[in-house]
Write a structure and sequence with these properties.
The protein has 261 residues and is α/β, with parallel strands linked by helices. It has seven helices and seven strands. Bound molecules: nicotinamide-adenine-dinucleotide.
Length: 261
């Protein structure tokens, strides 16, 4: 038996990075998937999964659009008859724009995808999960939502908002049997961080990436997928309202110089 055997799961941002790794792992663990991305790379994710014998349907949708979120949840219900878990994972970084140059439109787009997207996933999945008296919602936040220094302002604010949304929603779902948690990735090698890795490789400094965390390396998408699997599955049945850093220990320590004793 897989750890998500027969469960109906929606994953957004499934065309790349963490979402693709999660799609592959969840399917391997028996989940039946609706994989969502606004990029057609989600079709490649679906092919990788189905070629390995997994059950998946790809949908090219915008995770920050209410009608698109309704469409993918509706599809999971129609195709698989229920909705056991949703991972609101799609996100954009928005880059590092100096504060004085940031526009309202720049902020609005980052908040629309990174924060309103998870809100919509929650809003449209909970009626079905409450009726089932079970369900697990996972949202991708970031270490940037816990501390400063990891991103630009709107991205950090959006991810802090996701953590607050998760905590507030866990409280408002009291007594329903539906759980919600966030994962807070540190620096993970994905499409989003490709420029960081490419630039470091070009300068010959790639060995320095991730040196601020006690594991002294960046994370890989499959390590986030594993955390999401735990939170989506019944193995985390008493974990609720939490923001789980998956960051090599970055947020557990003050930055230090030199070798620790
Ligand atoms: N990579 C990191 O270091 C890191 C760190 C902290 C948090 N995160 C978060 O992890 C999540 C996944 O990112 P990733 O690192 O795998 O990056 P990624 O760029 O490899 O994947 C993100 C995917 O989301 C999709 N996407 C973006 N906006 C969308 C929208 N409106 N609708 C549908 N799909 C959309 C992209 O097309 C892409 O396929 C994001 O929420 C990101 O903020 C990443």
């Amino acid at each position: 038996m897989g750890r998500l055997e027969g469960k109906s799961v929606v994953i957004t941002g499934a065309g790349s990075g963490i979402g693709r790794a999660a799609s592959r792992l969840f399917a391997k663990e028996g989940a039946r998937l609706i994989a969502v991305d606004r990029s057609d790379s989600v079709q490649e994710t679906a092919k990788l999964v189905s070629d390995s014998g997994g059950t998946i349907e790809a949908m090219m949708l915008d995770a920050g659009s209410e009608k698109d979120v309704q469409a993918c949840i509706g599809r999971a219900l129609k195709k698989y008859g229920r909705l056991d878990a949703i991972w609101a994972n799609a996100g954009i970084s928005g880059g590092l724009v100096p504060l004085a140059d940031q526009t309202v439109e720049h902020w609005q787009e980052i908040l629309r995808i990174n924060l309103i997207g998870p809100f919509l996933a929650i809003k449209h999945s909970i009626p079905h999960m409450i009726a089932q008296k079970s369900g697990s919602i996972v949202c991708t936040a970031s270490v940037a939502g816990l501390k400063s220094g990891a991103s630009g302002h709107p991205y950090a604010a959006s991810k802090a908002g996701v953590i607050s949304l998760v905590q507030t929603t866990a409280y408002s779902l009291s007594g329903t049997g539906v759980r919600i948690n966030a994962v807070c990735p540190g620096l993970i090698e994905t499409g989003m961080t490709k420029p960081i890795f490419d630039n470091a490789k070009a300068r010959g400094t790639d060995h320095k990436i991730g040196q601020l965390n006690p594991l002294k390396r960046p994370g890989q998408p499959h390590e986030l997928a594993a955390a999401g699997l735990f939170l989506a599955s019944d193995e985390s049945s008493y974990v609720n309202g939490q923001a789980l850093p998956v960051d090599g220990g970055l947020t557990a320590s003050m930055p230090y110089a030199g070798k620790p004793v």
